[in-house]
Specification:
Number of helices: 14
CATH architecture of the largest domain: Alpha-Beta Barrel
Helix content: 40-55%
Oligomer: single chain
Shape: globular
Strand content: 5-15%
Radius of gyration: 20 Å
Largest sheet: 9 strands, parallel
Length: 352
């Protein structure tokens, strides 16, 4: 995948939306393998955490070659930390960097990050600028080891991963910066907010059709997303819509109706990688995929110091939505701690 991948994607672009606590390495692997979305993003990671944390912070930046183009999403409030993290992400071989300006979670917004950046437009612009400068630093010869606030431990791990990349991804190439955000803080301010971001010329803006205040309540306002597309006319920035998209058909319809370059699908992909496909294949079944998902989860994390099976269980609950006796099956799955136990529960209930 070339580094200017956005320009080479067919339209409408249909991607997997980044979601904290969901779009980890195993989820992205399964979704890409069986759904084949055009783009995937990592869970977001704090730039301050990356610059001052231990190597455990890098778990959010795990990916494999099947996931390209792979986009790393980051958040925070410290421009210089964005710059240093951008250099590090280039060294890790990502195809793009996305800045989260849309997370409504209280712990994120109260720190001034995520969707709270809508209230501080000058800081938002500075963050985009510094992220781009961090990419330039990489192109001009800097690495994680040269970043003042990145620990030696993290720098060594980044160097280790870099050495394992395909040769093409070890080159010092520039990568694009995109933004994911919302239509406003407590009310839509789409025209002003879009103009603020567009001044910084990101390659793409993905827009969730709710305000921070709405969280995930009510309906996404696609008319406001359409206004964003109008504001961006004449720019080279791609506009993607997000919110309440439950199928590929709806995604395509909304891209046409609101003159968008693409759509991101979020919650509809929970336990359903086929949401990105026109037809559901006969094999493998979704329950066989669930077992594979668990096996990938174990392979990815089981040897880590603080391994826990708990994050996998919510995915198992999603895989059995809509089946007879779903509640009892879900309860049994929520007691499992391994792929063998998951397989046994599914077999006992006639799903395998």
């Amino acid at each position: 995948m070339k580094k200017d991948f956005w320009a080479e994607l067919g339209k409408p672009i249909i991607g997997l939306s980044p979601m904290d606590g969901v779009t980890d390495q195993p989820f992205r692997y399964i979704t890409k393998k069986y759904g084949q979305p055009d783009i995937v993003y990592t869970e977001f990671a704090s730039v301050e955490g990356v610059c001052h944390g231990a190597t455990s912070m890098l778990k959010d930046f795990l990916y494999d070659e099947t996931q390209r183009p792979a986009i790393a999403q980051i958040y925070g409030t410290t421009p210089d930390s964005f710059r240093q993290t951008a250099t590090l992400l280039c060294q890790l071989g990502f195809d793009g960097i996305d800045i989260n300006m849309g997370c409504p979670a209280k712990n994120v917004a109260h720190s001034g990050a995520g969707a709270a950046l809508i209230k501080t437009p000058e800081l938002a612009q500075e963050i985009i600028k510094e992220t781009k400068l961090g990419i330039e630093d990489w192109v001009n010869g800097k690495s994680a080891v040269d970043c003042a606030n990145v620990s030696d431990e993290i720098a060594r791990e980044v160097e280790r991963r870099h050495a394992l990349l395909p040769i093409a991804y070890q080159q010092r190439q520039s990568i694009p910066v995109s933004v994911k955000t919302r239509i406003g803080f407590d009310k839509p301010v789409i025209k002003e907010w879009m103009e603020t971001i567009l001044e910084m010329e990101p390659v793409a803006i993905a827009l969730h059709g709710r305000t921070l205040k709405q969280q995930y309540g009510g309906l996404a306002d696609w008319e406001q997303i359409g206004v964003a597309a109008d504001v961006a006319l004449g720019s080279e920035t791609l506009i993607l819509g997000n919110g309440d998209v439950s199928s590929l058909e709806i995604a395509r319809e909304r891209a046409i109706a609101y003159k968008l370059d693409g759509i991101l699908i979020g919650r509809a992909a929970f336990g359903n990688p086929f949401v990105f496909r026109e037809k559901i294949p006969e094999s493998p079944t979704i329950y066989e995929i669930a077992v594979e998902h668990v096996e990938i989860f174990e392979k990815t994390y089981v040897n880590r110091e603080k391994y826990s099976f708990l994050p996998m269980r919510k995915h198992l609950g999603w895989y059995v939505r809509g089946v007879p006796e779903a509640a009892s099956i879900r309860a049994a799955l929520f007691q499992t701690n391994s792929s063998q136990e998951v397989r046994a529960v599914l077999e006992e209930n006639g799903l395998l």
